[in-house]
Amino acid sequence: MSQANRRRNATRPHVQVRSILQGTLRGLAVLSLIGLFAAAGWWFNQALVVKSWQIRGLPESMENAMDEQLKGLQPLDLVHAWPSRLRTHLLSSMPDLAEVNIARRLPDKLEIGATMRMPVALWRNAQGTVLLVDGQGSAYRPLKAGEMLDLPLLRVEAAELDAGVSLLLKLKQMDKASYARLSEWISEDDGWKLNFDRGRCWLLPRDANAMQRMQQVIALMQDRRWKNGDWRVDVRATTRWFIRKSKLGGMV
Fold first, then answer.
1. Domain ranges of the chain
2. CA-to-CA distance for 85 and 102, rounded, in angstroms?
3. Which residues of 189-198 are buried (b: 16+ CB within 10 A; e: fewer)?
4. CA–CA dist 160, 142 (Å, integer)
5. How distant, in Å, are the alpha carbons of 5, 59, 93, 105 from that of 64?
6. 53-66 average pLDDT score
7. What are the helix (H) ranges across the chain?
8. How far is CA 91 from CA 51, 112, 117, in A?
9. What does DSSP say about strands 242-245 and 231-234: parallel, antiparallel, or unpaired?
10. Which residues, at least 6 apart from 131, have a Cβ–Cβ distance to it below 8 Å?
11. pLDDT tens digits, residue range 61-83?
12. Spatial separation of the C-alpha atoms in residues 168 and 136, rounded to whole Å
């Protein structure tokens, strides 16, 4: 073996050791940076923990309920108090809320504005549970034990909720007095049946003519001939309407 080859072989282990040391040092440097960033992130997250909040737009009972929800989520650090994440949680855990808007005020405060759903009817589902229904036709929560709401009961299939609520709201808009007297809105094979107090009843077609017929019945009931009576009105047919006394019977 030549002298040059012997020198190259002698230096090769030193090169390998130096390469290993350099790789180890680079790995330690990367780990140190990761640890540093993790520690800084943890400190930053803890430094921005929410300590107070202000709630607007809710009645006192709902404000107290939301306050308890927020207390139960403590600690509300930067991650858990992220507005979109917190909004999703509040809407899912408090079904009476229609909307929630959350603004973060650094370093440690939340400003929360919320609106309530307004129930317009009750609905009994296939399982027999009575639920509250809002103006969008969403059945959003069961009626609570002891909860007394003077609202009409929808006896319709789930697929008919939107159509039923849409007509119900039109009735409320056109004739608030009739809406206040309405006790049941029923889906039958041949139309809608509206039961009011004192035995009064309207029978409407369940098609595109329902809105127009309802307007016509409202106008008819304002006529002095019919205004003070208790009538059962059937306007499902296109050629002939039927008006009967609600208690005495007999056709007019």
1. 1-47, 52-116, 119-245
2. 10
3. eebbbbbbee
4. 18
5. 86, 9, 14, 21
6. 94
7. 3-47, 60-72, 83-93, 161-174, 176-181, 210-222
8. 21, 12, 11
9. antiparallel
10. 122, 123, 124, 125, 139, 140, 141, 142, 143
11. 999 999 999 998 878 887 778 89
12. 11
Looking up tokens 């008919």 gives 160
Residue 26 has pLDDT above 50, yes or no: yes
CATH class for the domain made up of 119-245: alpha beta
Name residue, tokens 């440690």.
108
Q: Which two tokens stand for residue 141?
A: 């929560």
Q: Which residue has the tokens 């929800």?
A: 69
Token digits for 157? 């299939």
Taking the C-alpha atoms of residue 73 and residue 51, their distance in angstroms, rounded to an integer, is 12
Say how many residues make up the chain: 252
Of the candidate CATH numbers 3.30.450, 3.30.40, 3.10.380, 3.10.20, the domain formed by 52-116 belongs to: 3.10.20
